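hiii, so i know i said id send this last week but things got crazy w the move. better late than never?? heres the sequnce for the chain we talked about at the cafe, plus the structure i predicted for it. fair warning i was half asleep when i ran it
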Amino acid sequence: MTDQDRDGTYGTEKQPARSRRRFPGISSRAYEHPADRSALVALRKLSGFDTVFKALSGLLPERSLRLLFLSDSVRVSDAQFPHLHTMLLDACYILDLEKVPPMYVTQNPVPNAMCVGLDEPIIVVTTGLVELLDEEEMRAVVGHEVGHALSGHSVYRTVLLFLTSLAVKVAWIPLGNVAIMAIVTALREWFRKSELSADRAGLLVGQDLSASMRGLMKMAGGNHLHEMNTDAFLAQAEEYEAGGDLRDSVLKILNVLPRTHPFTTVRAAELKRWSESRDHQRLMDGHYPRRDEDKDTKVGESFRQSASGYAEEVRTSKDPLMKLVTDLADGAGDLGGRLRDRFTGGTRPNGTGAGAEDPSDGGGSS
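okay and structure toks below
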């Protein structure tokens, strides 16, 4: 790793604790989850979003936000939280982010981190998070936030924070609140997907899957690693994704709608799957899209990649609703019976039902 001077230029004072691969000129497209890109495309197509976004860009208190953190938080530097400063420089070096974002530690017992800002991104971590994670776990988190900065996520995150606050203030205006909440809901859907992208960026920076897993487990269960097990934690994700019937699928959707982040077990499972994928291996071997190629990337191409990613997710999903969608797409018959079985988990009079063999589909499992 190379350090950076205050003016943003690289120096040669510090070295990394261990060797990690660097990704010169890497484009955020290399690690972005397909659902992240497609959700952002859908968000931009939302009626009224462009108008609201342009208006808010001029109204949001960007300078106020920076002054707030400058006056009431601790700015990370070589003099304050120097270990975090080193991690930040290291993350920017590995992902080749030339301008290092300012980073602040704010007093809050709730473990959290965020990347906000319209003109320039600002990274904020809470004291609860700093106290919870060890060095390698924290390195993945810093890489996660630098990934947000490289992807340009901070702009939409800032708008989401502002609109969430505004929705509370105008809740007494029925139509106004409905319009704002429609955009907030779309922003939350995109942001949940963007978290999966940033998790991948964190893995590229830390290059230690076990540390990334430990950090996610701690976010879910606190600083009790001796009481937790990675395989058992991932088994929870398997049970969550595959268990239940259609009623559970609907409840999952309702549970996640108010959240800005995906559920922790789901994030862990998604990250592990990506770490074992061919895309990740190619990236680690140095084969990845570069930023200087971004201008030649067509929107249609990105949308097709996103659509392909969604199709693969539906095809391989074990969720009852997604399996039903796959069955219908494959031309499976007896729609009424299948819907009844998926909602009730019941068995049909002929002995078929959820999970039982059905002669109508050639003896395969439904």
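btw The chain is about 60% helix and 5% strand. thought thatd interest u
miss u guys!!
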